[in-house]
Amino acid sequence: MRGEILDPFLHYLAIEKGLARNTLEAYSRDLNAYLDFLEGEGIASLAGTTKLTIMAFIRRLQKGGLALRSITRALVAVRGLYRYHASEGHLEANPLEDMELPKLSPTLPHVLTVLDVEQLLAQPDAASPRGIRDGAMLELLYATGMRVSELVELPTSKVNLEAGFVTIRGKGGKERICPIGEMAMERVRIYLEQTRPAMLKGGESPFLFLNNRRGRLSRQGFWKILRQYALQAGITKRITPHTLRHSFATHLLERGADLRFIQAMLGHADIGTTQIYTHVNREYLKKLH
Predict the structure, then answer these.
(1) pLDDT tens digit string along 241-251?
(2) Which residue ranges make up each domain of the chain?
């Protein structure tokens, strides 16, 4: 039962919706928990469920100590599963269709101050090959607001230093063009001219940023690099690659950038996703004053 119910839906989310791997893994976990629950209740198919089944599942999650946000996320995944099978003609009714899910207040992302960012960007040693690479990565990440997955998968061919922009392939395979500032351009240029050829050791790679084995730098590898420089800079707050993305958007908004421009830079399909930064900006300004 499980494979027939779950696999086609996850394939649909990956191919048709272009969801990121992390998002797909979250869907898979939530849906497997739901299917485990159905099996425990002796229910052999989605067609054998009702609203009472959904309510019993919610109670099970609550007893398990799950937060409201996690429960809502699981219900969104379950609702999507029913909608998919109903659209494919496998189901006549969706017990979740008329159920109103809890409305959650947005969780405000953590951001760095401008001074924090400046101190962070100043940490890599501009005299060493590793420092040149790391400095270029940090500058480019903050200059464009790209996701860390987009950074490590960025091909050299998508960087146009003469025109001052990069072409980023985002979620769902959609491409967007992002301008980059002079400092980021200069650091990337030095890396391309001085460091990258030495790292390749006569080999080839389509990727802009390389590890010590001439391969593509991993997301985990970049995260370790970022944490190291954050500690050097004396930044004690929790920092992830996405923190720089959030900081980029918040600082743009603080400087008067249009929300639609920020949406385009971040590659958000929905302006509602970008609007979270208006809330962040208000909180950020409160702390400054």
Answers:
(1) 888 998 998 89
(2) 2-87, 114-288
